Amino acid sequence: MKTNSDSSLIARNTIWRLLQLTALGLGSIVINAFLTRRLPTPDYALWVLAFSILGIFYLFADFGLNQTMAKYTAEYSITAKDKLSALVTTGLVNLGANALIACLSILILSPVIEHFMNQPGLTRLLIIGSIFIISRVGMEMVGGILRGLHDFAIPSKISAVVTCVEIVVYYIWFSLSDISLTAIFVVRSLFFLIQFILIYSLFYFQYARKYFSIRINLFDKEIFISIIKYCLPIGFSFLSYYLYTKVDILILGIFSPDEEIARYNVADLLFQLPLMGLAAYISVISPKVTNVFYAKQHERMQHIFSLSITLVTIPMTLFTVLFFAVPEFILNIIFPQYVSASVLLRILAPLLILKGIGQVAAGGFLVSTGHPRILAIITAVGAVMNVIFDLLLIPPFGAEGAFVTTTVIHSLAILFSLYYISKTLHLKIRFKKLNSSMLKSIFTVKQ
């Protein structure tokens, strides 16, 4: 009965997590589809560039805080329930300090960034975006606490509902009146603020008031230091990953015309769409892989690895064919102003299968078996190589050069991680015929 209960909980949480990621991903695509229809290319490129720069400030403001809070909440809920109040209070203090530093940095650095990027109006958008930074970091931190309490439903419901409302607001607004980039930025930031207020309110009334109190005198210096220590390696890994991916837009902003930024973002949004479900799936198999690894059940871990590879390869192959064969058809439906991005999707298409396998291998197996260091090294080396080749290829080739770099560097990094897994964990890439009992075996946790 315990096995069935755990299996049901994991499956249910996976569905909730998948709902949240799908809402965020599809919401972003729909909103960008609206924007590409109503904004001229320079304004849309400035929108993309501003949010990419805000992404750096967000990384420094969060720096692994939400994953850290999830870890310690789950740990303390079992080993030290009396410390939960101090943990949450200390986490909120950490959040406030990080957000304050990020906002002050935006105020100081925004004019410098605008001058360097030669993008008039960028300072105003970045300052408005400080609302987004505070809201997003707070939303993710409270979401981390809820994940530690095994409650995936609250953030998922809020994300889905608020995203739907936001889409309706944009649709009505764009249909009835002219729009300005500044106004859109304000509204987008306010919707993130609404999500933060809602998720914190529900957390407070359902958990904080009932199970633990939040008072400033509960701040715990030892917990604060523990949070910082745990955040640092995660934060640096995320920073490396930014240089491994989103830095392309910043380099395009320096060396290429606005249309290249717009084309890049459109292609990247579509490319990331099929990868969204992997995060939910990885969150399911990670604890299972950890249990099996430390129980030294190698045959069973090979079974999970092979089954996971098979499950990932099937949908990724379908999307690869679509992106390579009919990208113009897809773009005509969603982003008709940027059908020229079809060549970018064709460049990325061969990477999709390998990317899916690599994400499962890295997130589901390398990290879960105690090898996060090698993943951090691979990401850091990939980040350096990505920046170098971007600087070489983007000036002459624009977005095409950025995606050639992405395809080559990511492929090499994934192949190396798979080689490392084969040598250290002795796992081989094998495909399995799927059936219901095999699928059930992944969602079952034996005690």
Automatic annotation (TrEMBL):
Question: Could you tell me the superkingdom of the organism this chain comes from?
Answer: Bacteria
Determine if Membrane is one of this entry's keywords: yes
The protein's matches in InterPro entries, at most eight in alphabetical order, are given as:
Poly_Biosynth_Transport (IPR050833), Polysacc_synth (IPR002797)
Residues passing through the membrane, by range: 21-39, 45-65, 86-113, 125-146, 158-176, 182-203, 223-244, 264-284, 304-327, 347-367, 374-395, 401-421
The UniProt keyword set, sorted, is: Cell membrane, Membrane, Transmembrane, Transmembrane helix
The protein's location, in the record's own words, is: Cell membrane
- Asked if the Swiss-Prot or TrEMBL record annotates the protein with the keyword Nucleus, the reply is no
According to its record, how does it sit in the membrane?
A: Multi-pass membrane protein
One cellular component term (GO) for this entry is: plasma membrane
**What name does the UniProt record give this protein?**
Uncharacterized protein
